[in-house]
Write a structure and sequence with these properties.
single chain, mainly alpha, c-terminal domain of poly(a) binding protein, 2 domains, about 0% strand
Length: about 140
């Protein structure tokens, strides 16, 4: 890497992002975690539980996931500022809340592609020959 040239540094950063993932997404993740850390204890506990659930079942791509986590932080910060009780926010069925919350975000390319592939395979197995591999009819 030469000191006066931006090109080698640009190439290096592009290579680094291929290996480690988007540096911008990592920055956004650290910002999200800092916001969650500032919440009152009960909201932080709820946020951590919701985050754990979303890591397993939420969007698989970085950009979609980061938009979702930023919106989650916004929601929790507003709720804490307004004094909304945890049950008032999540309701009696937290899974129903989180599933409705996730429905607003794209699944991510891999999961969407696999869902289409699975649906198509079942249609073929059921003898519905109009279904194709890409999930279209």
């Amino acid at each position: 890497m030469t000191a006066g040239s931006d090109e080698p540094k640009g190439r290096y950063l592009r290579y680094l992002e291929v290996v480690t993932g988007s540096l911008e997404d990592k920055k956004r993740w650290r910002q999200y975690k800092a916001r969650i850390k500032q919440l009152p204890d009960d909201y932080r506990t709820a946020a951590e539980a919701l985050e754990r659930y979303l890591m397993h079942f939420g969007p698989a791509d970085g950009a979609g996931a980061m938009a979702m986590f930023a919106d989650l932080a916004d929601l929790l910060e507003r709720s804490a500022a307004d004094g909304t009780p945890i049950r008032g926010l999540f309701g009696d069925d937290p899974v129903e809340f989180v599933e409705a919350f996730m429905a607003n975000y794209p699944l991510g390319q891999y999961r969407a592609r696999e869902r289409k592939r699975f649906t198509s395979a079942i249609a073929r197995a059921a003898g519905e020959d109009a279904a194709r591999e890409d999930g279209t009819v």
